[in-house]
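Budget justification aside, the reviewers requested a transparent look at the raw inputs and outputs of the sequence design task funded under Objective 1. We therefore reproduce one unedited record. The lines immediately below are the structure tokens for a 327-residue chain.
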């Protein structure tokens, strides 16, 4: 019996994609803590926004909780997620003598330090970000209530009523759309010409690089898939960037099983990328799903090289060395 030949399809695989240095560090902290201190290790909130990653860590012995009151007394460590936490969280941990490790991405910590510096200088701070996102909650929670006003849109710039007599400064969530943030920043300068800006761009290198790689391929694609979680801000922004850059048919999928094949049908050119908290194994899974249905050729489109790494927390490194017998 003659098999019907598979339709041909060309996949454009964007790079950089997937894990950033902050995500790698956060996952490594949980895994090394399990090895160094034993099971269980408690993690407040999802360590990163990806169900596959979280479920894998659960299988290894991590217990995920929403708040510290779910963590029993004892010497098992509790880890704070990569998104950062309000100051009240480590304070509460110290009051209970809990041993904690902070997996906050160093680039998020940089924004926290900026906010604290501006507050110390007496400025009213405007934070560009999305309400309710853990990173925004953590950043606003670095300072007393009312010190930081949240700006989500250009309209918010003209509606907000900051205390200009104190001087103004702005900071941003690290995982935003570069282009949308640019519009908001322009509006801020238009209304508040003397507002102080970050010394260096707050949007992280990985967010910027992944958006640039999507822009590079979007207008060539009949369809574009972003591998990532629905609660991942940087993944959602990649879908938005793809649509604005020429590929209206763009979608977010967590895994290959989420692909809507009826909607995709038989395109000639499909782009694939992944958010900063999506592991490469899920990208491979998506590629495999296409190979099951199509005769696939793959083109790699790389727009930047990434070699950023972040150290693990000092106490964890010391305890790892003790366990291995090195100093």
């Amino acid at each position: 019996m003659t098999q019907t030949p598979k339709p041909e399809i060309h996949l454009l695989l964007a790079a950089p994609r997937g894990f950033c240095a902050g995500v790698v560090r956060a996952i490594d902290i949980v895994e090394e803590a399990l090895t160094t201190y034993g099971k269980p290790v408690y993690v407040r909130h999802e360590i990163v926004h990806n169900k596959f990653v979280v479920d894998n860590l659960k299988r290894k012995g991590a217990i995920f909780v929403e708040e510290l009151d779910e963590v029993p007394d004892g010497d098992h460590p509790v880890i704070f997620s990569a998104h950062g936490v309000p100051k009240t969280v480590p304070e509460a941990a110290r009051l209970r003598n809990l041993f904690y490790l902070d997996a906050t991405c160093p680039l998020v910590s940089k924004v926290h330090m900026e906010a604290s510096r501006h507050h110390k200088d007496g400025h009213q701070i405007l934070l560009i970000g999305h309400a309710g996102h853990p990173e925004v909650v953590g950043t606003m929670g670095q300072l007393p209530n009312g010190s930081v006003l949240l700006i989500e849109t250009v309209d918010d710039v003209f509606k907000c009523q900051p205390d200009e007599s104190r001087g103004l400064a702005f900071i941003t969530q690290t995982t935003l759309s570069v282009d949308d943030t640019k519009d908001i920043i322009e509006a801020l300068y238009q209304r508040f010409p003397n507002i102080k800006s970050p010394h260096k761009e707050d949007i992280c290198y990985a967010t910027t690089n992944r958006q640039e790689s999507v822009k590079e391929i979007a207008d060539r694609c009949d369809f574009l898939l972003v591998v990532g979680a629905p609660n991942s801000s940087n993944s959602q922004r990649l879908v938005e960037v793809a649509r604005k850059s020429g590929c209206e048919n763009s979608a977010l999928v967590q895994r290959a099983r989420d692909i809507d094949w009826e909607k995709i049908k038989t395109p000639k050119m499909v782009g694939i990328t992944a958010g900063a908290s999506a592991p490469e194994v899920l990208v491979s899974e998506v590629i495999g799903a296409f190979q099951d249905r199509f005769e696939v050729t793959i083109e790699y489109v790389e727009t930047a090289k990434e070699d950023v790494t972040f150290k693990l927390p000092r106490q964890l490194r010391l305890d790892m060395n003790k366990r291995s017998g090195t100093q």
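Residues 21-37 form the longest helix (17 residues). The longest strand covers residues 8-15. Computational costs for records of this kind are itemized in the attached budget.
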